[in-house]
Amino acid sequence: MKITVAVDIMGGDNPPSELAQGAVNAAKEFAGEGLELILVCTEDAASQLPQLPKNVTLELANSVVEMTDDPSVVMKEKKDSSLVTAVTLCKEGRADAVVSAGNTGALFTASSLIIRRIKGVRRAALGSIIPVEKPFILLDCGANLDATPEILQLYARMGSIYAQVVLGIENPRVGLLNNGTEPHKGIALYQETYKLLSADETINFVGNCEGKSLPFDACDVLVCDGFTGNIALKIIEGMAKFMGHCIKGIFHAGPLAMLGGALTLKQTKALKEQVDPSEYGGAPFLGLAKPVVKAHGSSDAYSFRSAIKQVLKYCKGGTIEKITASMANKNSSVNIEE
Amino acid sequence: MKITVAVDIMGGDNPPSELAQGAVNAAKEFAGEGLELILVCTEDAASQLPQLPKNVTLELANSVVEMTDDPSVVMKEKKDSSLVTAVTLCKEGRADAVVSAGNTGALFTASSLIIRRIKGVRRAALGSIIPVEKPFILLDCGANLDATPEILQLYARMGSIYAQVVLGIENPRVGLLNNGTEPHKGIALYQETYKLLSADETINFVGNCEGKSLPFDACDVLVCDGFTGNIALKIIEGMAKFMGHCIKGIFHAGPLAMLGGALTLKQTKALKEQVDPSEYGGAPFLGLAKPVVKAHGSSDAYSFRSAIKQVLKYCKGGTIEKITASMANKNSSVNIEE
What we know:
Two copies of one chain form a homodimer. Chain A contains twelve helices and eleven strands. Chain A is of the alpha/beta class.
């Protein structure tokens, strides 16, 4: 089974050569699994690439979507960008999936307009894998700021399927982010969603989850609207960074503390790896007709390679087919087109 | 200037004797500042109290509000509770302020109904002081799950005044919690609030704040609706707890790591104190006609003493008078009664 991924190596915080290196590493590592890559970049960037193995080809583009570009104008003014080109390769069937470390909003807009959504999916969502005591997937992280109970139910189903296929969790526990654990908690949207999720036999709903339980294996899939989810995601990221600063501060306080740091180097390194998002490398868009993964803007070669590994699992596990089947479920209240 | 605080020592996670000890410590420490306390408890609890100094008196109550009690029934069924008695002492003028470590919802409901709000204040808010790199006050932490732009503006003003009076910050920076820093970010409520806060000359608005910047001194007052605020507060608490577990884990990995722990004991202790909410001890309700402070449910003697110290500052700084004056500000869009 051959899987071809269109890889936009422009528009990240790191130079294209760094991302290309991550792509080349992934291509070599997963060649045996049928992975083929199409790197999309400008001519200028192409001149600085490492040597490409046989299963990597090049596709040139004329412009680059910047992080500061307004997503709504990208489709008009930057149709010839590496980002839009990568998405178009996927639409045309030359690629099975897309990875980009560029502008999140532009990737979402371009993918939604060009690749489009799975039939019955009212809204695609941005999922993010949160590495705490045990990793879980949080969605929606901001693809849509508003939601309805039916849309949150859709997120729950799509997140469950993704957790099964990509995280390898057999019966993922779905939690609803809320301001308390009791069923009546939250604003009306969340009260109604609680009822829908409780009645949905296709998922393993474990109830409302409060923020304080999130780092401690409260659930495998955490569902919320995109406004709340984006704020939650960024607070978790901020607090993880704060933790890193604090630990560094402890070990830089003087010679004895530095010795203490040397004695615990193995443990602090292991912790850093545990809470490092680069181990997963990317945030999947769920609900689109083809797999699209947003690699972190600050991706280096290692985390970009991880994002490509993730999209390979996304493809091979039949995630899209499973979401399509879930939409066709007769008991579903989620598959009503607007 | 004499300040009398009604102190409910029942209904917390720790026994009344522990909270009474904290109250007695505060009474001794701040006797010179005119602090007098009325401890409210059951007869049973009264029999186990430490010896009371001259500036502490007792008031007996017949029942206790439990953490699991529904706030809406407390006013009907537990009018004789220590919590309602403490609030009533304040209403009747026998006390100037209230502190309780009991049921948050019940304290808010009883205070709102008995003490009532400052004229012009449409909604009282629950503030919480978040101890990260530099402490800031987050409001609303869940007193009201819904809000309007005018209500969020009200929170901004009240939070500013509290930060001046209690945290001692001259010109507090007010941030709006949002999913991005640009003015157009967020759901409609937040877009409208951004405009109101920008135009409000009585506050020092510094714009939208994302979650990732919160631990790093982004603002002194962080404003949001109660649903988002409660979730944000609990994620921060959860991540701080996770940080504690991780650091403990580092130093318990083996004999060398334990030696490392011993060498950095001073630094880890300092960090623990820095991120310890018990240093502030309580969350103020803002907008009520008298100062009411909710001490943390798990308060021990030290943090209960800190909550009483906080309410003393709340009273002495003229917070209520300043909020009242702010409501009378002609340019204000916040003082429209529903």
